[in-house]
Automatic annotation (TrEMBL), chain A:
Ranges in a coiled coil: none
Pfam family, one: ABC_trans_aux
Protein name in the entry: Uncharacterized lipoprotein YmbA
This protein's UniProt keywords: Lipoprotein, Signal
The organism of origin for this protein: Pseudidiomarina planktonica
ABC-type transport auxiliary lipoprotein component domain span: 47-165
Signal peptide: 1-20
InterPro entries: ABC_trans_aux
Domain of life: Bacteria
Automatic annotation (TrEMBL), chain B:
InterPro entries: Mce/MlaD, PqiA-PqiB_transport
Record-given protein name: Paraquat-inducible protein B
Residue ranges crossing the lipid bilayer per the database entry: 12-32
Organism: Pseudidiomarina planktonica
Coarse class of the protein's main subcellular location: membrane
Compartment(s): Cell inner membrane
UniProtKB keywords: Cell inner membrane, Cell membrane, Membrane, Transmembrane, Transmembrane helix
Pfam family membership, one: MlaD
Residue span(s) of domain Mce/MlaD: 39-130, 154-215, 283-386
Length: 171, 544
C-alpha cells in the first residue's frame, strides 16, 4: 500500500515537471487612473453586471458566428467587472449620476469580433425622477489597429471610453 | 115445333160473383198486409213541429226508414206538439227507455254545418236506438242532435265552473293539443250559480282522465309576464278559433286511478291556476293573524322554506260566528289548504291522515305560519311556514268552525314594528330626572378625584426633581454608548473588519489561480500525468 502511494507520488512529480510552463499575459483597460481611489457611493458600489462569458478572467474572441473563445494565455489582470466599476467611479460626473439615480450597468458584449473589431455593448439602467426604471442601450465597435491581444485591449478600451463619453453627454 | 122456350134451371151462383169475391179477398189481404207490417205507435213530444208533416215525414235510424209520422196534435197544455209515429213492426225492438229522437234539419253550429240534405228532402226524424231493458213508446225529442251516438265508447265527466259561458256545446276537448272528445252539454245551475259542462272523452283516450287530472280553458293564446320574462304561447289555428277545454296531470304528480263516469272536476280558467289550485286532496287549516293581511289574496302560495306546500283558500276566512266571544275581530282568520300531493317525491308518504299527525308534531317542534312579502313592489304576501326557536305562545283556539287552527307568529315586519315600539317604550320609561341627579353627584365625585390627581401629580414632580432620579438617564446613556462601542468593533474601518476583508481577498486570488488548473483538468483529465495538449489561443487580427 505504502509502496503504491510512493510510486503514484513519484509519477505525479515527474508528470508535473514534464508539462510546459504556462505562458500567460495579463492585460488591463487603458484609461484606468493608477493610484486614484474610486470611492463607492453612500449605499455601496453601483450595480455592474457582466455576461456569463465575460465573467471569466480570459479575454474573449469570437471565432465563428456561434463560437467564442476565452483565452487562457491572455487574461485580465483585474476582473473585468472591477475594472468597469473603477472606470465608472473615477469619473466624477458619472459617479454622481450613478449614485443619485441608483444607476446600473449591464455589459453584454466585450470582445473581439469576427470582422476584427472590438465590440462593446450593453445597457444602462437608472431610476428617473418619478421612480420609474429607465433603460438605455449602448453599442460601440472599434477596428483593431494591429494583430494581437494588446491591440484588442486597446480597441476595447477606446470603445468603452466612447460609451462613457456618450453616456456623459446624455446626462 | 115446339115454340116453348126451353127453360133450364139456373145454377146457384153466377160466376160474375167471383169478381167481387176476389176483390174482397184482395182487399182483406191488403188490409192484413198493412196491419201486419205496422209496428207500435210512438208518441213523441216535441217543442216545435217545424218541418214535420203528417203522413209525409219519415222516421229513420241510420238512414233506414223505420216509420212515418201519422198525425200531429198539440199537447193537452199546449206547451208542446205531440207527434204520433207509426213505426214499422221491424223497428219495435229499437224502442227502449233510452232511445233518442230528434228532428234533422239544416243546422249551422260551431262544429260545422249539418243536415243540408233535408233542404230538398224535407226534415225527418232520426232515431238513436237504445239499449235499456225497458220498453217505451212515449218519448221527448231532443232539441239538438246528440253529439256522440250512445254506442260510442268513452267516458262522460262533468266540469264545474263558477264562470258560465266559457264553454259551448260541441267545443273540443284536447289533450296536449290532440282532440280527444267534446263538450256535450252546458248547463247553468241558478241555485248554486255554477255552470256545469258535460264532457265526452272518446275511447281509448278516456284512460287519460285520472284522479289528479286538471281541466282548464284552452284559449289558444297565452301571454304570461313574470319574473322570468314574457312567455307567449300560441296554439293551433283550430283551437285558436274554437277555444275549448284541455286537461293534463301536473308534472311530478301521480296520475291516480282512472275515474268513474260522471265524476265531477273543477274547470279552471288558466293552466297556471289549474296546476296551482287543482290539488284535490288537502288538509284545511285556519290561521289567525294579528297583522294586516293586505296583499294576501286567495290562491296565494303557502311555502315551507321556499317549497310550495299549499294554497290560501280564503283571506279573510268568513266563518259566520254566532257570537263574537270566540274571536272578537282582534285576529283575522284566513283559511289555507295544505296539499301534501305537492310534496310528492320529497316525502315518502302523502297520505292525508298521516300528514295531519305529522304536522301536529311539527307544530309542537316550533313550526309556525307567518305572512311574508312576496314582492315588495306589489306588496303581495304569501304564507311562510318556518321553525321559530323562541316560539310565541300558541293561540288557545284549537278549532274554528271545525277546521283546526295552525299556530302562527307575526310577520317579520310586524315583529320589527313591535320591537321598535318596545324599544321606544323602554326609552320612555327611563327615569331621566333621577339619572340627572345621579349624574350631578357623579360629577361632584369626579371633581374630588381630580383634586387628588393633582396632588399626586405634584408629588410626582418633586420625585422627578430629585437628583437621583435625574442621574438615571445619564447612567442609561453610558450603558448605551458602551454597547455602541462593542458594536463598532465590527465596523468597516476597524482592524477586525479589515483583516476579514484581506483574508477574503486572498482566498479569492487563490481561487482565481486555481481556475486555470480546474479548466485544464476539465478539458484534459489526465493533464496531471501527461503533458497538456498545447492549445494556442487564436490571435486577434488587425482590422481593415
Amino acid at each position: 500500500m505504502k509502496q503504491a502511494a510512493g510510486i503514484l507520488g513519484l509519477a505525479l512529480l515527474i508528470g508535473g515537471c514534464a508539462s510546459a510552463p504556462l505562458e500567460r499575459s495579463n492585460y488591463q483597460l487603458t484609461g484606468l487612473a493608477d493610484g486614484e481611489v474610486a470611492l463607492p457611493c453612500e449605499q455601496g458600489f453601483p450595480d455592474v453586471r457582466v455576461g456569463r462569458l465575460l465573467n471569466g478572467d480570459g479575454l474573449v474572441l469570437q471565432t465563428s458566428a456561434v463560437n467564442w473563445h476565452q483565452a487562457h494565455e491572455h487574461k485580465w489582470a483585474v476582473p473585468l467587472r472591477e475594472q468597469l466599476v473603477q472606470t465608472l467611479l473615477q469619473d466624477q460626473k458619472l459617479r454622481q449620476w450613478l449614485c443619485a439615480n441608483d444607476g446600473a450597468l449591464v455589459m453584454q458584449d466585450f470582445f473581439g469580433t469576427l470582422d476584427n473589431q472590438a465590440r462593446v455593448a450593453g445597457y444602462w439602467q437608472w431610476l428617473d425622477a418619478n421612480g420609474n426604471r429607465q433603460t438605455r442601450v449602448f453599442e460601440q465597435q472599434k477596428v483593431l489597429a494591429a494583430d494581437g491581444y494588446a491591440a484588442l485591449v486597446h480597441a476595447l478600451s477606446k470603445a468603452w471610453q466612447q460609451v462613457l463619453e456618450e453616456q456623459k453627454a446624455q446626462l | 115445333m115446339n115454340n116453348k122456350a126451353k127453360v133450364s134451371k139456373q145454377s146457384w151462383l153466377s160466376p160474375v160473383w167471383l169478381i167481387p169475391i176476389i176483390a174482397a179477398v184482395v182487399g182483406f189481404w191488403m188490409v192484413y198486409q198493412s196491419e201486419a207490417g205496422k209496428g207500435p205507435e210512438v208518441q213523441l213530444e216535441i217543442t216545435s213541429a217545424e218541418g214535420i208533416e203528417a203522413g209525409k215525414t219519415l222516421v229513420k235510424a241510420r238512414d233506414v226508414e223505420i216509420g212515418r209520422v201519422d198525425s200531429l196534435r198539440l199537447s193537452d197544455d199546449f206547451s208542446s206538439a205531440i207527434v204520433t209515429i207509426q213505426m214499422n213492426s221491424a223497428a219495435e225492438p229499437l224502442l227502449r227507455k233510452d232511445t233518442q229522437f230528434w228532428v234533422v234539419k239544416p243546422r249551422i253550429a260551431r262544429d260545422g254545418i249539418s243536415g243540408l240534405g233535408t233542404l230538398l228532402s224535407g226534415a225527418y226524424i232520426q232515431v238513436e236506438p237504445g239499449t235499456a231493458e225497458q220498453r217505451e213508446t212515449n218519448f221527448v225529442a231532443l232539441e239538438q242532435p246528440p253529439l256522440t251516438s250512445s254506442d260510442t265508447q268513452g267516458l262522460r265527466i262533468t266540469l264545474i265552473s263558477d264562470v258560465a259561458g266559457s264553454l259551448g256545446v260541441g267545443e273540443m276537448v284536447t289533450f296536449r293539443g290532440f282532440p280527444v272528445g267534446q263538450v256535450e252539454e252546458a248547463e247553468f245551475d241558478p241555485e248554486q250559480r255554477l255552470a256545469s259542462y258535460q264532457l265526452f272523452i272518446e275511447a281509448p283516450y278516456d284512460v287519460l282522465v285520472t284522479e289528479n287530472t286538471r281541466f282548464w280553458m284552452y284559449s289558444g293564446v297565452s301571454v304570461q309576464v313574470g319574473a322570468e320574462g314574457v312567455k307567449f304561447d300560441l296554439g293551433s289555428l283550430e283551437t285558436l278559433l274554437s277555444g275549448g277545454v284541455t286537461f293534463d296531470v301536473p308534472r311530478d304528480q301521480p296520475r291516480g286511478d282512472k275515474v268513474a263516469a260522471e265524476t265531477e272536476f273543477r274547470l279552471f280558467s288558466e293552466r297556471e291556476d289549474a296546476i296551482q289550485q287543482g290539488y284535490a286532496r288537502a288538509i284545511e287549516y285556519v290561521l289567525l293573524f294579528d297583522d294586516s293581511i293586505r296583499g294576501l289574496a286567495p290562491g296565494a302560495a303557502v311555502e315551507y322554506r321556499g317549497v310550495r306546500v299549499g294554497t290560501v283558500a280564503a283571506a279573510p276566512f268568513k266563518f259566520y260566528p254566532e257570537d263574537d266571544t270566540a274571536l272578537p275581530l282582534k285576529l283575522i282568520p284566513i283559511k289555507i289548504r295544505f296539499e301534501p300531493d305537492r310534496l310528492e317525491g320529497l316525502v315518502s308518504n302523502t297520505d292525508l291522515e298521516g300528514w295531519k299527525d305529522r304536522l301536529q308534531g311539527l307544530f309542537d317542534e316550533g313550526m309556525r305560519a307567518s305572512l311574508k312579502a312576496n314582492n315588495l313592489l306589489t306588496n303581495s304576501l304569501y304564507v311562510d311556514l318556518a321553525f321559530y326557536e323562541n316560539e310565541m305562545p300558541a293561540i288557545e283556539l284549537a278549532e274554528l268552525n271545525g277546521i283546526p287552527v295552525m299556530p302562527s307568529v307575526s310577520s317579520g315586519l310586524a315583529q320589527l314594528e313591535q320591537k321598535v315600539s318596545r324599544l321606544l317604550d323602554s326609552f320612555n320609561s327611563i327615569p331621566m330626572e333621577s339619572i340627572g341627579t345621579k349624574l350631578n353627584t357623579a360629577l361632584a365625585d369626579s371633581s374630588a378625584l381630580f383634586e387628588q390627581l393633582q396632588q399626586t401629580n405634584a408629588r410626582l414632580d418633586s420625585l422627578l426633581a430629585n437628583e437621583n432620579t435625574q442621574a438615571l438617564p445619564a447612567a442609561l446613556t453610558e450603558t448605551l454608548s458602551s454597547i455602541n462601542k462593542t458594536l463598532n468593533g465590527f465596523d468597516q474601518n476597524t482592524p477586525a473588519y479589515q483583516q476579514l476583508q484581506d483574508s477574503l481577498q486572498q482566498l479569492n486570488e487563490v481561487l482565481r489561480d486555481l481556475r486555470p488548473l480546474a479548466e485544464t483538468l476539465n478539458r484534459q483529465p489526465n493533464a496531471l500525468i501527461f503533458d497538456r495538449a498545447p492549445v494556442a489561443d487564436p490571435q486577434p487580427k488587425k482590422g481593415n
